[in-house]
From TrEMBL:
A Pfam family annotated for this UniProt entry: GDP_Man_Dehyd
Name the UniProt record assigns to this protein: GDP-mannose 4,6 dehydratase
Species classification: Bacteria, Bacillati, Bacillota, Bacilli, Bacillales
Leader peptide range in chain numbering: none
Stored PANTHER family: DTDP-D-GLUCOSE 4,6-DEHYDRATASE-RELATED
Gene3D superfamilies referenced in this protein's UniProt entry, alphabetically: NAD(P)-binding Rossmann-like Domain, UDP-galactose 4-epimerase, domain 1
Length: 307
């Protein structure tokens, strides 16, 4: 395998590079300059730059991780979301089509594509109609439709991974597990008098997977997934945000008071979103391996170390 990871210096990109380093020749793209010879600075708003890179590297697989990743920030950056996630994907797919249509492409979407799930469905499968409720979810649903279109009309070897919440060490602030872990670590490390942490809605339920398992899933899709298909990447198990908080609080050596901050409560919050992983398990034999509690402990301990 000769792999190109777009957004290789992002949260998932770094873990995927580490996972693949003994399995493939790995190259990557970034918006910034890096000294590594295998990482190239390009703009996905330029189809010509992507074509030139494809001709130079000649990858067998492309994992398209580059793009806009924050649901919260997407409300204030709607145009940037469309440019980063939709326009960038079009340019990538066009570049592959023009250079070598046999290249396997994994486009990465999100559970936010599903949005409001019909009543009575406990675990979301890939056939449920999409109903996104935020700009990020809208952009990723467009990516999934582009993947299907380029497979159907151009015969591109493309698969769309619809990933649910993934967490782990190295994730930036702005995501629930790392925000909680950071606040708790600050209180423990700095021994402040104010042992209060502010949180948003604790009753929503999500499907959390360790980022290492996500990287493993992308590899399995790259090797064994079926072209033209969409796959949920998830555990099939739901955990409430309250559960997440309580696990992280159990690592604290001091008592912490939890306060709900109305400004942190999203008006468009989806109450429950748990995925059905049966399709990816059946087609690729992938299964998540990491335990939620250990993953949360790793996140917390990294913040303690960093502080």
């Amino acid at each position: 395998m000769k792999v190109l990871i777009t957004g290789i210096k992002g949260f998932v990109g770094k873990h995927l590079e580490e996972y693949l380093k003994d399995k493939a020749d790995v190259f990557g793209t970034s918006r910034a300059d890096y000294p590594e010879k295998n990482i190239f600075k390009i703009s996905f708003l330029s189809e010509w730059e992507i074509i030139r890179l494809m001709e130079k590297i000649k990858p067998t697989h492309v994992f398209h991780l580059a793009g806009f990743s924050s649901v919260k920030d997407s409300w204030e950056n709607k145009q940037a979301v469309i440019e980063g996630n939709v326009t960038g994907t079009i340019h990538l797919l066009e570049a592959v089509r023009k250079v070598d249509g046999k290249i396997r492409i994994i486009t990465v979407g999100s559970s936010e594509e599903y949005g409001i799930v019909p009543d009575g469905i406990e675990k979301v499968h890939e056939g449920i109609p999409l109903s996104p409720v935020n700009p990020y979810g809208v952009s990723k649903s467009m990516v999934s439709m582009l993947a299907k279109m380029y497979f159907k009309f151009y015969g591109l070897n493309v698969i769309h991974a619809r990933s649910f919440n993934h967490i782990g060490s190295g994730q930036r602030l702005g995501f629930v597990t790392t925000d909680f872990a950071h606040q708790i670590a600050v209180i423990n490390k700095r021994n402040t008098k104010d042992n209060t942490m502010n949180v948003g809605n604790l009753d929503t339920i999500r499907d959390f997977a360790a980022v290492e398992d996500i990287a493993d899933a992308y590899y399995h899709l790259g090797r064994y997934g079926k072209a033209g298909e969409i796959y949920n990447v998830c555990t099939g198990e739901g955990a409430s945000i309250r559960d997440i908080l309580n696990i992280l609080l159990s690592f604290s050596k001091v008592n912490i008071e939890v306060m709900v901050d109305p400004e942190k409560v999203r008006t468009s919050e989806i109450q429950k979103l748990v995925g059905d992983p049966n399709k990816i398990i059946k087609d690729t034999n992938w299964r998540p391996k990491r335990q939620l509690e250990q993953t949360l402990k790793n996140i917390y301990e990294q913040w303690l170390y960093n502080l």
